[in-house]
Amino acid sequence: MQIKSRACGAYGTNCYIITIHDKELIIDPGMEATSWVLRNVHHPIAILNTHGHFDHVWSNAELSAQLNIPIYAPVDDCFMLEDDPFGQGTPPSYANVKVVGDESFDIEGICVKFFHFPGHTPGCSAILIDNTLFSGDFIFKNSIGRYDFPYSNADQMRQSLEKFLKIDADWKIFPGHGESTTLKVEQQNVPYWFNFL
């Protein structure tokens, strides 16, 4: 598996291109992601959203139309793709596949598993591909996602962190902002954040 990434837009949102067997998955194409993605894909097969915030989905519609590929997004965040609830002027996009909870998919022979970790948003999820977790805005290096936004929920964040602590694996983590980390490292950091929830 090859991973390309670029921090896009004013919020430095990481857009990822995952290449497996000469096929590409695009994760969280945010603001100003389109031209970079188009330069770096040859056989794209899907767009995957970790959650619905505008800085992660801004280029969904443009890329989906130009590349003729489906969008997978958590069902509980689809209203953010469609309705621009924060008034940011986000181009509307529509998920072809609305992901429910912890759901796995075979996308042209590539196994993709969504883990539902609500709290940052109602549908906030992390996406596992080949022992690598793309954590969106749920887990960052030495930090967690904010839970004080509209539609955020501190109680759900606590429950999601408890679920995260129960995962027994040694995965790399590539977050929605900032540097990569590992699951084991962040499991050690998580208990600190319970003091604030």
From TrEMBL:
CDD domains for this protein: metallo-hydrolase-like_MBL-fold
Superkingdom per UniProt: Bacteria
Residue ranges constituting the Metallo-beta-lactamase domain according to the UniProt record: 12-177
InterPro entries reported for this sequence: MBL_Glyoxalase_II, Metallo-B-lactamas, RibonucZ/Hydroxyglut_hydro
Keywords of this entry: Hydrolase, Metal-binding, Zinc
EC number: 3.1.2.6
Molecular function terms, GO-annotated: hydroxyacylglutathione hydrolase activity; metal ion binding
Pfam family, one: Lactamase_B
UniProt-recorded name of the protein: Hydrolase
SMART domains: Lactamase_B
Cofactor: Zn(2+)
